[in-house]
Amino acid sequence: xxxxxxxxxxxxxxxxxxxxxxxxxxxxxxxxxxxxxxxxxxxxxxxxxxxxxxxxxxxxxxxxxxxxxxxxxxxxxxxxxxxxxxxxxxxxxxxxxxxxxxxxxxxxxxxxxxxxxxxxxxxxxxxxxxxxxxxxxxxxxxxxxxxxxxxxxxxxxxxxxxxxxxxxxxxxxxxxxxxxxxxxxxxxxxxxxxxxxxxxxxxxxxxxxxxxxxxxxxxxxxxxxxxxxxxxxxxxxxxxxxxxxxxxxxxxxxxxxxxxxxxxxxxxxxxxxxxxxxxxxxxxxxxxxxxxxxxxxxxxxxxxxxxxxxxxxxxx
Length: 316
Prior knowledge:
It contains twelve helices and ten strands. By secondary structure, it is an alpha/beta fold. The strands form two sheets. The chain has a five-stranded parallel sheet, with helices on both faces. It is elongated and about 80 Å long. The model is unreliable at 1-23 (pLDDT under 50).
């Protein structure tokens, strides 16, 4: 689709030659992906406020949440359309939203907190807009991923964002086994209700000595950061007291030295423990990830251990 030339818009700031802000005047056609605060409302950017003020149409994951943010910053609705877009209504709403952009309007899209599309809805909306040749602009700002990395005290030169892990332990352990030997800091989100069980799975799959940080309610009044080994953190959050708030976990990279120093006795012990509860194939997959060893090598060792056990017990 071709953008409409010379269409009027109200409010996007531009910069003068010397870098001084110019009074907001125009906002061109397009879909604006607007980052919003993850807790502290003052973390909104000046450009985000300009775009939210000027857009022809406001689109939000939850219009009630975004309406509160607009009210805090004195941004008026002025009778503009305010559309909800989330995972449940995406297929129905995407054509309507993109038709407005194609008609020359400027639409601002916000998720409930942070940067849209980062563990939030919006990916298909952006992908279809680009397929149609429509302008898509990022209005960058706060993200819980970078905020967590900034204060966790763990390496930040390489990191892997995992989003939310599977809710059930079996699939969660499988997902962790696939990335256990990745030599990058891991960042993930978790619900407070599942945090204790997830920490136990992290211990079992990644190893109890792996350093990590649990970050709760980042940028909010009751922000809390706990650091330590996965074993220590699992013990800290194992109590009956309910955990509240938004949770992020940052986990240190797999250690190359730890992989090299893995001794046969430790490998056999890990395989024996897992084979008592799981199939040989599943046990080998998890242990290979835990020790950073080739899966085929660990699987062959698991088969030998199984055969030795059968010889001792007389099982066929």
